[in-house]
Amino acid sequence: MKLTLVRHTSLNIAPSICYGQSDVEVSDKFDDERQKLQIKLASFRFDAIYTSPLQRCHKLAQALCADERLGFTGADIQYDARLSELHFGDWEMSPWDAIPRETFDVWANDYANLAPPNGETFSQLHARAKSFVEDVSSHSQEKNLLVVTHGGLIRALIAEVLNMPLKRLFRITIDHASVTQLEFNGEVPKVNFMNL
Predict the structure, then answer these.
(1) Could you tell me which of 125, 99, 100 has the C-alpha nearest to residue 111?
(2) What is the pLDDT of residue 171?
(3) Which ranges of 96-150 does DSSP label H, i.e. alpha helix?
(4) Nearest CA among 142, 168, 141 for reference residue 155
(5) What is the mean pLDDT of residues 105-115?
(6) pLDDT of 115-146, one tens digit each?
């Protein structure tokens, strides 16, 4: 099974805001970014399409399906909450610099195991990402699945494939509207490419 992971397009939000699972709108560059992404995906054939339910992902999935070359309609999209971004709890929609520095530093030093207040840990995000892969792989061997999701989730799956500590997730850059492909065939999963 191949998972072709697409990160959503850029967002209409200041870069200094923590947004996680907040339902942020896409930026005015959406159409341009979507068209470039469509070109990247044109040479692939997919057997199914999945998306995070957050609007920045499902809006992109719907727009991609409007191009008949993809081979899907909007009705084919399968929504899965496990594909959502990290939940930052009480920090959602706050400026990063409004979070008390000592609180943020404690979290940043162990975000795999510590959650923002009323949020989730990266270990919890990683677990739901793995759960998604296990579920779809049970009926999708030899298939290529298109998955529209978030940077945190893509990083978590890359960490899983590379057997990499979650603490090192942010050494990986995942651009908006980028494509990453992971392969789960046999005993050793592979990263076929990243951040295309």
Answers:
(1) 125
(2) 87
(3) 101-109, 122-137
(4) 168
(5) 94
(6) 999 999 999 999 999 999 999 998 888 999 99
Closest to 26 measured CA to CA, from 177, 183, 185: 177
Task: List the structure tokens of 139.
Answer: 């009926």
Please report where in the chains the tokens 């040479």 appear, as a residue. Answer: 43
Digit-coded pLDDT (tens) for 163-173:
999 988 888 99
37 confidence band (pLDDT: 50, 70, 90) = very high
| 32 backbone dihedrals φ, ψ, rounded to 5° | -65, -45
| Strand partners for 94 | 18
Cα Rg, the chain, nearest whole Å:
16
Kindly list the distances between the CA atom of residue 95 and the CA atoms of 30, 92, 104, 123, in Å, as whole numbers in the listed order: 24, 9, 12, 24
CB atoms within 10 A of CB 186: 7
Could you give the strand order of the β-sheet that contains 144-149, starting from the edge strand earlier in sequence?
A: 78-79, 48-51, 144-149, 2-7, 179-183, 190-193
DSSP, res 24:
P
Q: What's the rounded Cα separation, in Å, for the pair 159 and 147? A: 17
Residues in the chain: 196
pLDDT at 122: 96
Give the three-class secondary structure for 11: strand
